[in-house]
Amino acid sequence: MKQGDTIGCYELLRLLGEGGMGQVWLVEDSIRNRQVALKILSPTLSSDNDVVQRFLLEGQNLLALNHKNIISALDAGQDQGDFYLAMEIVQGKETEEIVEKHGPMDEDTVLAMAHQLAGALAYAWREHAILHRDIKPSNIMIHANRHPYLMDFGIAKVMTDDIHLTLTGFSVGTPYYMSPEQATAQKDLDCRSDIYSLGATLFHLLTGRVPHPGDTPMAVISGLLKGPAPSVRDMNPAISPACAAILAKMLAKDRKNRYQNWESVKMDLGRVLKHKPLSGEEGNDSPREEVTSKSASTKIIATIAVIVILAAIVLGGVYGARRGIFRDLLPSSVSQEDMT
Known about the structure:
By secondary structure, the chain is α+β, with helices and mostly antiparallel strands. The chain has two domains: 6-89, Phosphorylase Kinase, domain 1 (2-Layer Sandwich), CATH 3.30.200; 93-315, Transferase(Phosphotransferase) domain 1 (Transferase(Phosphotransferase), domain 1), CATH 1.10.510.10. The chain is built from ten helices and eleven strands. The strands form three sheets. Strands 1-2-3-4-6-5 form a six-stranded antiparallel beta sheet, with helices on one face. A three-stranded antiparallel beta sheet has the order 7-9-10. Strands 8-11 form a two-stranded antiparallel ribbon. Helix 6 (217-226) runs antiparallel to helix 10 (294-315). The longest helix is centred in the middle third of the chain and has 22 residues, at 107-128. The radius of gyration is 20 Å and the shape is globular. The two termini are 20 Å apart.
């Protein structure tokens, strides 16, 4: 592919990024008369029927999402053997970049953003049974007007998928923000997994640190499985007790002790923003954790060896025939310079 080539109604203007799975271009959409980002599947993968099916299914799922806080897919298809997915472009900065340059974000900004993103994730789960599975600071963009956008549903899982198109037993996602059940490749994930991941993301934005640091995927996941997340106030004493209580519950290792739905998350975030007391038992700064049984410990040890291999595969970008193999293609942000 080169500048000036066309795929469907899209003229390639400038290469924005590329990897083993393909390329992402800034393109001119001749139908909509605007510029968009276009994921193009590598020709070496286009001959794999399972890969193509997953790519097209991903496009269908993304096209179904229509929410003000989700960067949307616009089109997906094929032109002369080239498979593509068109995405809207939003100008802004990733929250990861903001924290790296300026340090932890202030509590009110983070909670207001989280309240909106919780609404977007509630919509995806309630209306489409979609889990994001890769919520992290680099997948959240803030527009100049402070409007947040959730990006990259590239490894999202639709819980109503046909079984022959659903690979199980793989821990896909980013280990620093992954829920314990996702890290151990449990099959019965639900919205509580994304709730954990958003909690880990908020922890990072408020402290500049991840809940469970580690130099390797094994170290990160081992720490995640062995103990509870630290209190956010230990890392940033300026955080209010109410905010810390919300994060503690979102980050509970046992999902039975987390918020059970997005509506409850939104309610408590809204109450803190309005300086009202939390509902229920969220006044405690520490997560309620059950004592880990001997059998549970044995299960953790048995899964770590498998997780190390799978995490290395995921982080290495070798996604093979599984949903969301193109998540690394779409640039996490497009600046004003990218638009000119």
